[in-house]
């Protein structure tokens, strides 16, 4: 092997090494960019989890309140129904011949 062919081979190796270094640097940059995106997605996922937990808590509280309102309204409905029955009985036993229809569930 003569001097020129060795020099050419060395030059080819240098180009190869240089290209490898460029590709490695590009890969490192892609990896860093990917890490940033993964961290962003992780933060978004964490925020979503917190929002879901907060929403579930609020919905549970709302459900409990609605249940209490339903119980209270059922009691009020029952009382109104009893009052109307009493009024109907008084009207039927008195002078008035009036029929009142009371709707029941």
UniProtKB/TrEMBL annotation:
Any one cellular-component term (Gene Ontology): endomembrane system
PROSITE patterns, sorted: T_SNARE (PS50192)
Membrane topology listed for this record: Single-pass membrane protein
Major location (coarse): membrane
Coiled coil: 52-79
Location(s) in or outside the cell: Membrane
Domain T-SNARE coiled-coil homology positions: 21-83
Keywords in alphabetical order: Coiled coil, Membrane, Transmembrane, Transmembrane helix, Transport
PANTHER family: GOLGI SNARE BET1-RELATED
Protein name: t-SNARE coiled-coil homology domain-containing protein
Source organism of the structure: Plasmodium falciparum (isolate NF54)
